[in-house]
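Morning run. Coffee first, then this:
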Amino acid sequence: MGELQGFQKRYLRGLGHALRPVVVVGSRGLTDAVIDKARAELEAHELIKVRLSEGRPQRDAQTSDLAGATDSEVAGRVGNTALLYRAQPDPQRRRIRVPARPDGGPA
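And here it is:
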């Protein structure tokens, strides 16, 4: 899919608003268990909310590191909560249809 555009991130943030965090990055940081949990949740749901516990500079780094480790994209981050998105590789299994154009039309 490539990098998400602004209108796509806005769409995903709208969907993610009602989600509860399914992954929590604690004081031990990005452990293998946290990364594995995030990968499993992304596989199951495509869009997940992550709770971060460190200070602001660390949260920025943790968000980008977690996105890189899980091959996902950051759809948004507010405070100590981040939203990650990774589309299913198989189009038949995709649960979320991200619009290709700002008007919601096909590519």
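The chain has three helices and four strands. Good start to the day.
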